[in-house]
Amino acid sequence: MSFWSIPSEQHMMISSNSFSVPQYNQLSSIYNSYQHISPSSSPTPPPPNNISLPHSRSFVPYNGHQTIYQASTANTWATPQQYQPPTTYSFNNFGPTTIQRTTVNTAPSSPSTHRYPVGTTPLHLVHRPTPKPASPKVSTTPRRNSLPSPRDIDGYKNENGVPNGNIVIPPIRSIIPNRSIESTPEIKTLPKPSPHSPNDLKVDVPVMSPKEHLPKPMSPHTPKPTTELSNEFQRMVSTQVQDLLDSLTVVQDEINQNISPDIQIKDTQQLATLEDQLWHISRDAASTTKRIEAALNCNRGRKVNEKVEMGNSGLDYHKMMTEGRVESDVEDHTTALSLTKAVEMRRKYVPDAEFVQDGRPILGHCRSDYLPPNFQEYVNDLESLHRIVSSGPCKSVAHSRLVLLDQNFRLHCLLNSELEQSLNWSDDTDFSSVAKVDNAILLETAPNGNLLRRFVSLKARTSGDTPAGKNGETLKDVFKRLGMDPTHVTLDSLNVKSNSGAFQRYTMVKQNCQSKDITKIFLSYEGADKGKNFASLLKEVSWLWGLSNHNGEIRVPVTWCCEDQWNTLSSWINDNELWSDNLSWTLSIVANSYVNHKSEGKVNNYKEWLDNMFDPLLKATQDKERHPYLNRLLEIVGSFSITNEGSTDLVGDRVAASTPSDQWTMNQNPPFAYANYYIWTKLVQLNQLRASLGLNTYSYRPACGMFTDPPNCLLSGYLLAQSVCPGLQLHDMPVLEYLYYMAQIGIVASPITSNQRHTRFSDNPMPYFFRRGLPVALCTWEPLHSHISNSPLDEEYAAAALNWKLSDTDLSEFARFSVLLSDFSHEQKAKWLGDRYYVQGSEGNNPTMSNIPDIRLAFRYSQLENEREWLKQICTSPTPRIASPRSHQPLGKHQASEYVQIQLNYVSEEEPDSLRKQAAALISKAIKLREIYFKNEENVDYNPDIPGVVGSGPCVTFQEFSKHFHELCQILEDPIVVALSWQRLELLLLRFKIHKTLNQKAENKSNGDFYSCTKVDNHIHMAAGIPSQQLLSFITEKVRHHSHVPVVSDKEGNLQTLGEVFDELNIDVDLLTVRDLDVQADASLFQRFDNFNAKYNPLGRPKLREIFLKTSNFVEGRYFAEMVLGLFKNMKAAKYCFTELRLSIYGRSKSEWKELAQWYIRHDCKSPLNRWMIQVPRIYYIFHQQRMVKNFGEFLDNIFQPLWENTLNPKSDQYLALFLKDVVGFDSVDNEDVHDPPLLDIDPYHWDRPENPPYAYYMYYMWANIHRLNQARRERGLNQFAFRPHCGESGDSKHLAACFLVAQSINHGVGLRNTPSLQYLYYLQQIGLSVSPLSNNHLFLPYNLNPFPSFFKRGLNVTLSTDDPLQFHLTQEPLIEEYSIASKMWDLGMVDMCEVARNSVLQSGFEDYIKQKLLGKRYYLSSMEGNDPSCSHLASIRIGYRYDTMEEEVKYINSFLEKQDHIPNTFTDDYVMEQRKHLPQTTENRRESLFYTRSFNE
């Protein structure tokens, strides 16, 4: 097999998804392939067609590249152009992986004093074999910007170059080979493997000759990989594969013998055991295959020249990689072609930049052989681009890619912010010392208001006799005429500042100045003093820039069309020597001034206007001696711009599109795109002339994208411009924004000015542009009107940092972009950023000058290259998938495994960060505290007598619980635990968003029918379990037809009928409405739990609640039972909605259980779609006040003593025994937002105080009693109960800490949003959260603040429930209403809702056999193995993602811990399968399964 070829279908991993024929075939084919591998078995794939994408002018590719390969989302191959080090692979269980070429700059890095701090020793992101012990040849000192050498192949050879046979096969998780996994065609027979002698096995790994496809090696010291494996390794391969084949065959035969043709199972238990055996063997087969592939990869290792310093991808920082195949359908392929067409379209106008020998940049269109497209071609291109930008598919693709870029950057910052900060702190550079350029300042508003005020006041006092106007008027006369005091000049008197009334009214800003006379005197170069005052003012501005290391590009508005006015401007600049190293000029042509000259008769058409404007510049370039001043002006000008306020749109304007410039004779300004093209062509002509003479050339930077411009002005800017200002409308045009990113067109804007004019800070898209990688820079635009301080640019940066939460590195990146987008000379940029500033990526970075770590620029460069490669690969996809109609066939397991997988590659550290290590140890300690309450009983000390806990058996004492609880609270409050937890939670959130962006199409291919998947309402109180409309109908019907029925008996024994009750209450049922019932939630309930409890009383009458909503009353709960049975009937009609209804046990007396059980049996309140939960209100203090109980111990005895008696002797109360079979858990309910007394060690029988015990006290004694009760019931084969209390809706966060120790799941839990450490622990332990957003919205937390969407995205085990449909829901299907509102408010798709529904089934207490029917036979497995899409309707891709993410989180925490302190990953398939061996099936479950199976089938 060729070293560089794609692994053929012979190299498969044994899938663990099924127990059928393909498993045997795959392993058999691997076995055979290792004996007959030949070079021809896997030909090298052809390279894709080359599609070159443009580079921006400012970022030019550099020559010295070497090529490595990394896993990518792509599915095509790139041909290496230079020597490659060995291919690195990454294996995953979910789909084929492909290889992407990534370029790494090998030129020496710029000098830098940056070094990695202690604890951040760099290692390369791609996992490699464990290095051999250090030898004298290899330096062990970490080098900055260098790739550590892969495993030295010489370490596997003896001194004669022969393999020494000491290859150690690494563990399965140690080295993960990276291979494409293809599905083997399924066949009907099971061929037996032919016997082979282990000694006959020989694996040849031939190396492709450099003459064929590989270039010559970079170094003569690079050895070729070995072509043989050792005999010991050969024997190992043969033996392991043969043993696994034999095991698979035996188990498969046993299973086949137990299954008859009609699929009737003879012995279910035996078959399940055999399937478990086959599952474990398949896992071993997969593990062995990985080890074999890993060993082959290790043996193919090559030695890399150690003296070569690596850049870009060689930088060591935490990275995200994606693996798997990106399938492209016809729409994707067409969209990519359209985007590529748009990319290529720009190259006609802005060819790639070139560099001459001295490094001076020259624009591509400045070449003498360049011919600009004609106007008609430009119009056609503009219309084509408009169609692409308006295309729906293009919008979808561009939006998803932009979101991916955004999330990738957030992920990079989350993982590397500390590393970036530490690298910045390692030298003396900070943001204040880096060079910054103010890229756009209007000439007349360049001075800020405070500077202008001081300057005017100074001149008025010291130079009052200076001529300032016509007829010899002096400056003093002007002030006198305007009524201004020269000794007291204020900003108010000048009236130059913007106010709130100027928002969206640009014309008001221009009229703000107190007097045009003041403007002409101090802010014009055409005044009576010939602009001397203005020049002095600008020099002071420039001097202030120098104090702050600022630089500026002043835009001079050009409104004239004659040579004299050019001479006036150039003379003013030359006479006053307005040039310096920190000042550059931009000539901004005011395009709408044409109509003024036309109306004055100065020009006849548009072409003449353009000629009059540019001809003087062309003449001055050709004849320097005759135009010295104008030539000096052209030397200090860096760029040209155009402004055209309020212009019309060229696209769709047939007249403008067909009228050349010499025929435009109309008395109106042409559209922006029209003027933009013709001014650009004139600039190209000027640039070509100047380039031919060796003079400086100019970039083109139009002003467009403001709120007054047509949106399509940015289309013209895309074709012609190097940067635009301000370009904010790009955010509303995702396709164009993506194209601007691909072309790296700069965006320059002033957020402060925009905030005062048209776009508030909160709506400004600049932070989006920045995160997505567009070159963005800040400017001041109009400091006179918008800024206060003497340093307007610093004011801009400070405002941006404050409003957008930018770090020091972010601000420095803005500053770097401002330099790169500017038109200062090459020498000046090199002085500010370093000699190699023009090289892309980290190789062009000098961190001591830019204050940007190399890892930030390496990330930016890799993002851009990945996007270009992605676009190229989608375009060159040889066989795009043809979209077919949606099929009802569920997504198969092999298909489900083909998705883009996210991998995080962390920097390996010789000495892990001590703070992280400490935080991980505390997290591990917290999890081990919880394990004490859920581990096997034999490992717990025997405690026969615990006061307040009925019965005997192993149990944690209250003193131990109190100690654990306080330890846990200390852990949760530790700042390092909070910091680490927040970082990991944010990482989980970003990973999910990236996963969804990359795999949304693949997930949606599953049969994700939310309406057909089972949903369990895990949290619903039966007393409020029916909607208000149904309650109204029920009450009305009973009063009309059963008014004669006695329903109440007073204290004297007198009976009252239902009709008499309503007559007494003066209620006419014929006029009764839902509003009259007064059970619906309203604003009075917010933060008022007392008002909420009052809503349980229909019409505000407790007597009606006693009649209709109680199980124990005069009518023996008949009406309540009828409502329950009606609810069951509705659920059966809905078919896919299940419930866990709650009934109350108060603890007032031991007889409550007997009465409740009799009610249950008497009315037959049993349904296969429901299980009962028992809720215990925390209202002991009320019963104590009413003298119903003496102490808290008696309260507990009333609840749990009857259960113990019935467990020990079910015949003592057969009704209760039958009822308990239908009970699945206990809940603890009441208002949490009350003061908790301290947690004291008081015996429950001595708690006879009037106040309620603390919440944690309740939780322990509830758990301890349930725990002991479950032990007794387990020993007798009876069903057990879960503990799932109300927790975290309000109140102290310590409530959540208590439940973390003792609860299987909780209801609400929204308080976790305020405690990231506890939220992370709930995630790691997958403690269920049954959230009720509509209930929270009315009681404690507004809907838009509910953390459910963030919980879900991070991967917490969350589901939706209704809580109280009577109060909070309006429709007849409250659970569907809950899901529907959540999906619309939080943008949850069908796959998301199916996942939430699946969580509800997993959290529920329904029996194992029912969950198997609802979710699949192996629902209990957390991996893809546990998902059956035909049952759950959930794409296995989502399951695989959740499983991988959890596994990586556990590994991350364990990486900081000693082995004995590791957190056990209790969600792995192996662990779950092992635990299930110890779970006995109760006799009740076996009998009850027949009843429920019949009910389901019905």
Give structural notes:
This protein has 1498 residues and is of the alpha/beta class. The two termini are 58 Å apart. The protein is elongated. The strands form eight sheets. The protein has a five-stranded parallel beta sheet with strand order 6-7-8-9-10, sandwiched between helices. The longest helix has 34 residues, at 392-425. α45 links the parallel β24 (1305-1308) and β25. The protein is built from 55 helices and 26 strands. Helix content is 45%, strand content 9%.
What structural class do helix, strand and pairing data support?
alpha/beta
- Biggest β-sheet: count, sense, barrel? 5 strands, parallel
Give the strand tally: 26
Radius of gyration (CA) equals 39 Å
**How are the strands of the largest sheet arranged?**
6-7-8-9-10
End-to-end Cα distance: 58 Å
Give the fraction of residues assigned to helices: 40-55%
Mean pLDDT: 76
**CA-based shape:** elongated
| Strand composition percent | 5-15%
Q: Pick out the low-confidence regions.
A: 1-230, 259-268, 293-314, 501-514, 879-897, 1482-1487, 1489-1494
Query: Count of DSSP helices?
Result: 55
